């Protein structure tokens, strides 16, 4: 039994509130247990310089935490005048993951800015961000479809993420909360598509290592967890779900 | 009649949700019309270098907006690597205002960090931040009282803030929303105490000026608006309200 | 009697030396008691990006102190790599104030850069900067008129500024020097036009508050002080004074 | 056949020159095909603040490229005034990987600074850096052993890294050069220990995904490649190889 | 005949106003032709970390220009967030030069901060800064002597600086004004002591070179010019001049 | 006899390896005793904004040290977020020196980026950088000539540099190593052309001075040393040597 009474293969409760903030084209509040992230997707009608004139779009992501999202207050990155390595890693990960399931050629010269702002943290903020950001992006493209600015839903597949890990006693577990994450020997983040393929695997054993068998068990737990996440995403986006992967224009 | 059908001396609806985020000692979500700010107060058991060894405390504030709190997405200040002049002005204002109603000598060598993060903006974010931050600070001191780390409530008076302004047609109005703020000739922020005294007056007429009469009308509107705000604050903090201004230890 | 033997409603001696530095279009040294500020106005034949193509101009201000303008040496902001919140507040204030009395539509796509550099500080540097900068700007426009680059004087009214405050014993005073400013409970900066209207009111009571009555007394003191300042400005600019507010082109 | 005529499971030639630079405690030049990295390990007799007084040590890594290590010249990060997200990711990876095979409790309050400077790049710079840095760290600890400053070799296992990937035609390959890396659908970096356990797995499919089968094939290729790397490391460090993993003091 | 009608070996008029600013321990305004620099010397009762506990002092210099000291307005270095290479070179030069004529062992653990702020520039700002800073430093030490904080004048020799150069027609000239400096093939700054020894020689021929003969002529011109500067410095510092180089304590 | 058994007028052994790194148009490793610098010259087909449209080219230089090029590890300038004054001085010197021997009008709108990266330091890194950079630039132009992108060799003369100095016992010496440099009273860097003319003289006596006689001796030593350097450069560049200074196109 885990510290919050879950089974080793149980997700925490996942809640996604659509249209959470008024201004963005797509906006959700995602809650995974006590982790809460506002994911906003903004559409801008131009692309970064390296893409200009190619007729295709771009997706980029930013990630931040409120200073007191955590047990100890963190200094604001704007006050420090620079973004930490951890933040950069996470926002690069979110951006790459989203780009892997969007047909950038079909959105014209537009940039989707995805902002994931953690307002309360209890482990798994980067995977919650990806899961929530996917929904925000679908909603934003829904707005473009409605306004007839694009002809088909550019999202090609569902996309979800979870963490898995190995506790000091060797147990592999799904969806670590903060306390588990602090103790775990191995921490792995898995991003997968609705076709059960991998987009990202990032596994790390600081001051520890893991075997090939442990890896397989973790991959299996992750696959099962992400399947449940797809259901919750599907419920949130309603009719738009059917347009994911559409090929006709 | 105003663009949102309010009377010239009407506040928008003000809503304060206490204990909004789990980790901070004091936390509220304040909603003033469509403006939404998370105000967190964190207690740290040390003071900045310039105060060390004097046995007294400090209050400092930081203010930020989520990039898409506004109609147009703003570049994150952490990405720009510096905090804008506007942000600095606002966070200096919030900190000064709170310090004017807290007996810093009675809290020991502690710093109260107040974080005001605007998640949705529709005008009046700085005054909403002050009003909400006041409640968060009271709640945080409530925790210290409960833990018997301090002996009396260090807050000496209620503190609230509103904006007032002058529309192009010369009408003075209370509590400007974003659209009104964009059009107004004069924009004034007033911070007052429960004893009806002024803490800050900041009035500005960019590309416009205002007369002594207009000033008096605006001050009167502000005083009436802030009285209503005190009632809402009082409801939110419950029994702690009675301890504000207590002198015995 | 005050620490420098002035009456409560006395200004310090104000001295403005026109054409102080050779290169700028407009340049003055303003001395208010022991406070000395070099105010230079530079005309640049283009505007910031947000104004391009609109046929109108812009005024922006920068403010700095020499490191040893003060009793204790301050670290240079260029060495720290960033501009302090205090500096930003002041330069935003100076810029706003000047723009309120200049008809930006009539100067073409030009930017007026106003640099206020305090070489010696004894309180009231921001109000001295505004008072001096006004003269520098008038002189600079005088050069443009002489060169027939513009057709009318774009300055619409006189502009002056003073500080007022409340001493710990409750006395309201005009034009605080550094020692008074350090002790005062309330510090207020007032910017007014030659038509006796307000451009900015910034009043602050850190660790103190002020009543409506005190506010009225301070506003009265300020109005009288600024009247005297207008006379000194008028003497400095000579014939250009008559062209202020001219409407024909 | 690959673009450089290697087989899909062939490493490029790996060359490690020990004691390449004079000053560092440990220094190597590692060449993997045309990729060349100088790896220096410096011992400092103190630890970062968060570890002071705990009697244990720390390892941290920095990574950089000469501006013209690549086909196109890159702007120096010191000129830009900030370190890129890519650089941060890589140096965090190198540091974590090394810490997983060093008994930090046994080195006293010392920091090992590992500097990996790429002087010529042709793909795989981060894995070459880890492989070379491991040798530099062993050599540096050799110096401490010789000087009798520590009693046992603190390195507990061998550590090596390679990249694997999937070409657009679906072929899984070992040790990608730059051209292959640019074309590959999937890029994965694997760090393993001499006991054949995983330290890090980072697999990414930007604008592509990969199946569970492809993952298994890549893991197998990586395991075989790293075995060969261990042999080359062993040759370079000579007698020190036998002290790796020693438990007696 | 030169552009300002001087002879090739004529200095411009040099004027030094002592005690120009009130607060600094030593302060002068130096005018060399139309070049005007405020040189302030501030004494701080502590030394930088690398000197602590050694019982000796330090001198460091900073140099800046007001934005409109020049014909074209320059962007403020505090706005750019970094100090230019040119500024760094000059302030390092001023600091080194002053340290060469001060017995740092005799001033205790004190730092002399020298601030050279150019308010109007017409060539030769760095040499004017050194010449003026020397006087400011002597005056500051005079204050320490008067307060009996030190026992002897720590300045060991006079110190002065001039520029020399070669015009496109091959003429060597003394003390270049801005227009000459812009045209010159060679620009050389010479710092010398009252004993006619060299402290610094910095000669540069961008897009040009100079012969050994030209070098000798320039050195001779510089030596003669600096002799005249010593006389002006001597007049400014009065009785303190006799204490320069004193050896008894 | 000197600390490394050289005579006072002996250079250390100078070794230049051409084509050291693959990617740059010109690349050398220069070794002067134990000082080792990689000098890369990169050709970019555009010029900085201030030169656009003028049909001429530009040369700029950057200089850096690996953190452990020195006995004590230095913090990376990219980590500090700014380039030190020393680095700026050196890179400005290298750029100026190279520009003095290149006919920038004849290279079209191209920029030559010269990167001097010190991988091991033992004194004289800036003069070694100039000497090596000259060769790298010649090689890079050789590539342009070969590709028929330019018609004549734009290099007009040979360029070399050495340091000279004065030891505490008054001996003038050529080519100081690090230990000598640390002890020397005077440190002078001389850059000369193949026609025996001066390009730069930078002599400095921190906490010391030097006489006119010492200056003449140092200039003579430098001239002899640089003659030897020209021979080594000539050997390295082979046939290209004959094209230096060619005037026909």
From TrEMBL, chains A, B, C, D, E, F:
Q: What is this protein called?
A: Ribonuclease PH
* Similarity comment: Belongs to the RNase PH family.
What reaction does this enzyme carry out catalytically?
A: tRNA(n+1) + phosphate = tRNA(n) + a ribonucleoside 5'-diphosphate
TM region positions: none
Query: From which organism does this entry originate?
Result: Oceanobacillus jordanicus
Which top EC class is given?
transferase
Keyword annotations from UniProtKB, A to Z: Nucleotidyltransferase, RNA-binding, rRNA processing, Transferase, tRNA processing, tRNA-binding
The entry's function note states:
Phosphorolytic 3'-5' exoribonuclease that plays an important role in tRNA 3'-end maturation. Removes nucleotide residues following the 3'-CCA terminus of tRNAs; can also add nucleotides to the ends of RNA molecules by using nucleoside diphosphates as substrates, but this may not be physiologically important. Probably plays a role in initiation of 16S rRNA degradation (leading to ribosome degradation) during starvation.
Subunit text: Homohexameric ring arranged as a trimer of dimers.
Question: Which Pfam families would you find in this protein's record?
Answer: RNase_PH, RNase_PH_C
Q: Which residues bind phosphate?
A: 86, 124-126
Q: What is its EC number?
A: 2.7.7.56
Q: Which residues form the Exoribonuclease phosphorolytic domain?
A: 11-139, 160-224
């Amino acid at each position: 039994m885990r510290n919050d009474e879950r089974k080793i293969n149980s997700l925490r409760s996942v809640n996604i509130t659509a249209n959470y903030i008024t201004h963005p084209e797509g906006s959700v509040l995602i809650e995974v247990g006590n982790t809460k992230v506002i994911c906003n997707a903004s559409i801008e009608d131009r692309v970064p310089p390296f893409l200009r004139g190619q007729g295709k779009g771009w997706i980029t992501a930013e990630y931040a935490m409120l200073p007191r999202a955590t047990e100890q207050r963190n200094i604001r990155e704007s006050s420090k005048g620079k973004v930490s390595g951890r933040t950069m890693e996470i926002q690069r990960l979110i951006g790459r993951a989203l780009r892997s399931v969007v047909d950038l050629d079909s959105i014209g010269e537009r940039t989707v800015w995805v902002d994931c702002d953690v307002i309360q943290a209890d482990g798994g903020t980067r995977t919650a961000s990806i899961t929530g950001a996917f929904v925000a992006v679908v909603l934003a493209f829904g707005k473009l479809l409605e306004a007839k600015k694009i002809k088909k839903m550019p999202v090609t597949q569902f996309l979800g993420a979870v963490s898995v890990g190995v506790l000091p006693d060797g147990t592999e577990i799904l969806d670590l909360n903060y306390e588990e994450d602090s103790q775990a020997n191995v921490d792995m983040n898995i991003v997968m598509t609705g076709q059960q393929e991998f987009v990202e695997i990032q596994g790390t054993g600081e001051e520890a290592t893991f075997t090939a068998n442990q890896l397989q068990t973790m991959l299996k737990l992750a696959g099962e967890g992400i399947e449940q996440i797809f259901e919750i995403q599907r419920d949130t986006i309603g009719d738009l779900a059917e347009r994911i992967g559409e090929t006709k224009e």
